[in-house]
Design a protein that fits this description.
The chain has about 475 residues and is an alpha/beta fold. About 45% of the residues lie in helices and about 15% in strands. The protein has three domains: about 5-90, Winged helix-like DNA-binding domain superfamily/Winged helix DNA-binding domain (Arc Repressor Mutant, subunit A, Orthogonal Bundle); about 100-120 and about 365-475, Alpha-Beta Complex (Aspartate Aminotransferase, domain 1); about 135-360, Type I PLP-dependent aspartate aminotransferase-like (Major domain) (Aspartate Aminotransferase, domain 2, 3-Layer(aba) Sandwich), CATH 3.40.640. It is built from 17 helices and 19 strands. Strand 3 (about 80) and strand 4 (about 85-90) form a beta hairpin. Helix 3 packs across helix 4 and helix 16 (about 415-420) crosses helix 17. The radius of gyration is 24 Å and the shape is globular. The protein starts with a strand and ends with a helix.
């Protein structure tokens, strides 16, 4: 039997959120209800007051209440039964099914010493031009007490102008500055995908993406790929058979494969997404590191009905330690990510944002130099690796900093451990696939000074020969 709720205390609790804060009345009402559910004040199974009653108690229109409840129904927090009313389905943050962030822990916490060819970020800041910051800069920024949960207005304006210059009209209210692309992806998926709702994506993929959906409790609806990226027919299957509504896409220099989705394939994907009125989280973190130059179009330009949330970061072009990324989305979604973020932190660091602002006038120049450096490093590393281990298949990435190498093994975990003993840290392919199943690939990042990359690859070759010799000895 459903638990009845006393609607007067509920309305009193909601009034403060509804009549104060950011966003429309319906968004604020949805936020307030979400907070009551998260806090356990509205428990699973509890019946909400009738829409008409809530509207009267809160002094809002009934359509405002209906819209707010629709938002929470779409998130899977509420369920309605004809003739019986609306009930709480559960908390907005589902329990984690397994250990969260295990893949990124391997990258950032458990990494071995020696030469690190696992982490795909600039090794240091030596490629950056001089940039300085003093107290006057902070005062002039208008940062005030330092809490700007959506980001510094100056930086939001600058990011919006870059999107507009690329042909996608954007205003600062559509920008949320985040602590890197990882946080932007997490915020977007957490507010767009309902509880336990599948999220469609390809595998292999960015390891952090799998940490995110595992932590949120969203299963993967797998997408098939070929050398042109996501296969449109598999996207149709994910949106219909698997009933996914949210799709995570990397069309520009996909991590870890380096595949660049051509415009014709992008148009085909956009048609499918529009037909199903899907929601897309388009991760363009590596777009500026496509060797042929940043692609002229993306899903945000091509989709007409589907909602596209664009994710970007300065980590790959400038430096990961800045921890500055962003998402571009319709204002109602930005509002929801803001409230979700306030439960986690209070915004990006002001000094990091000001340093980014100081570097922005030269960002295109820095990106061009980075592309040239990485294209050369990838080509040299691939050639050396083919010489060191001829039996491996080394891919030809179209951007980024990584080689996705097929070793022919059933799984590369043992090889990674042997490589560590040789003083080089590389990532096993299992980090980048769903369910951490066995995988024959290695991910080797070559965004390092060439002498380090050269020695690291030779150590990988030595580790392979040791592994083969030991295997033969055991087999014999």
């Amino acid at each position: 039997m459903a638990r009845r709720s006393n609607h007067k205390p509920i309305a009193a609790a909601l009034a403060g959120w509804v009549h104060n804060g950011h966003g429309t009345l319906s968004q604020r009402l949805a936020y307030g209800l979400r907070r009551l559910i998260d806090a356990g004040i509205l428990e699973p199974g509890a019946a909400l007051p009738p829409e008409r009653t809530l509207a009267v108690e809160l002094a809002v229109s009934r359509s405002t209440v209906t819209t707010a409840l629709d938002i929470l129904r779409a998130e899977g927090l509420l369920t309605s039964k004809q003739g019986r009313g609306t009930f709480v389905a559960g908390a907005s943050t589902p329990p984690t099914d397994g250990e969260a962030a295990g893949r990124m822990a391997i990258h950032l916490v458990e990494g071995a010493g020696g030469i690190d060819l696992a982490i795909g970020n600039p090794a240091d800041v030596s490629h950056l031009p001089p940039v300085s910051l003093d107290v006057g800069d902070i005062l002039a920024s208008g940062a005030g007490n330092g809490f700007q949960p959506l980001g510094l207005p100056m930086l939001r304006q600058a990011i919006a102008e870059r999107h507009t210059a690329a042909g996608l009209h954007t205003v600062p209210d559509e920008i949320h500055v985040t602590a890197g692309a990882h946080q932007a992806i997490s915020l977007a998926i957490s507010v767009l995908a309902g509880r336990r709702q599948p999220v469609a994506a390809e595998s292999p993929n960015y390891p952090g993406f799998f940490d995110i959906i595992e932590g949120l409790g969203n299963p993967l609806a797998p997408l098939r790929t070929d050398r042109g990226g996501i296969v449109p027919e598999s996207l149709v299957e994910a949106l219909t058979h698997h009933r996914a509504r949210v799709v995570y896409v990397q069309a520009a220099a996909q991590n870890p494969t380096g595949i660049l989705t051509p415009p014709s394939r992008l148009r085909a994907l956009a048609e499918v997404l529009d037909e199903h009125d899907a929601v897309v989280v388009e991760d363009a973190t590596l777009a500026d590191l496509v060797f042929s130059g940043r692609p002229a179009t993306d899903l945000a330009h091509l989709c007409r009905r589907a909602t596209v949330v664009s994710v970007g970061s300065f980590s790959k072009v400038l430096w990961g330690g800045l921890r500055v990324g962003w998402l571009r989305a319709p204002v109602p979604i930005v509002d929801r990510t803001l409230h979700r973020r306030l439960a986690l932190d209070l915004g990006a660091a002001t000094p990091s944002q000001l340093l980014v602002l100081g570097l922005l006038p030269r960002l295109d120049e820095i990106a061009a130099a980075r592309r040239a450096f990485l294209a050369d490093s990838v080509a040299r590393a691939a050639e050396l690796l083919r010489n060191e281990v001829p039996e491996w298949h080394v891919n030809e990435p179209e951007g980024g900093s990584a080689l996705w190498v097929d070793t022919g093994l059933r799984d590369t975990e043992a090889l990674v451990q042997v490589a560590r003993r040789h003083g080089v840290h590389v990532a096993p392919g299992s980090m980048a696939v769903d369910g951490r199943t066995q995988d024959p690939h290695l991910r080797i990042c070559v965004d390092r000074p060439w002498p380090l990359v050269e020695v690291g690859i030779r150590r990988i070759g030595a580790a392979w020969r040791d592994l083969v010799r030991d295997s033969r000895r055991i087999a014999g």
